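Running this now, will post back.
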Amino acid sequence: EPIQGEGGVRTPLAEYLRQVRALCDKYDALLIFDEIQTGMGRTGSFYAYEMYGAAPDIVTLAKGLAGGVPIGAFVVTEKVAAAFHAGDHGSTFGGNPLACAAANVVLDTIADEDFLSTVKSVGAHFKQALMDLQEKFAEHITEVRGAGLILGMEMKQSKDAAAIARLMLERGVIINCTAGNVLRFIPPLIFTKNEVDELIGILERCILDICEQGGL
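Update: finished.
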C-alpha cells in the first residue's frame, strides 16, 4: 500500500517508494501496489503512487472504483500483460456489465481536474483542522497523518481511541479505530469543508466529554 490503511494511515518517507522501485528494477522483480483504499482519487491524485513518483508494474483496485457497487480490477503494464492469456486471471466482481457501467461513471467523474483539486483542498482543510486539535490536546494526540481524504489521528492510548470512535457513532459520525490507537477518517470524496467543520466540532466535543468522564 502506498499509504497503509488498516495499518493506521502510515505514510512513507518521500524517497521510500522510489527506492523500492529501484530495487525491483535492479533484481528484476515486479512492484505491486495495493490501491484499493488509496486509489480512485482518495489522496487527491488518481493513484496515491503518483504523489511519490514511483510507478508500479501492477495495481489492484476495488471499493471506490465503482462507487459502492462491488468490483475488482487488476491493472498491469503492457510488459506484464504480455505474460497473461485468456483465463489466467479472473475476479468475481471483475467484469459484469452493471459493475463496469458504474465504474465508467466514477472514472468520468474523477477524470475532471476540478474534482481532484477539490479533494485536495478539502483534505488539506481537514488535515489542518485535525492538527489544530492535536495542538489543543497535545497530551493525548501524538500525530496527524495522511493525504487528501484518507487521514489518521494517532492517540496515545488505544482505549481512548476506541472510546472516541464509539461516542462519535452515537452522535451520528462513522469513523473507525485502526491499528489499535489510530482514528481513521475516510469520508466520501464529495465531502465539503462545512461537513469537515461539523465533524471536527463533534470530535472535539467527544474528546472533551471523555476527558470529563475521566478518560484520556
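The first helix runs from residue 16 to 26. More later if anyone needs it.
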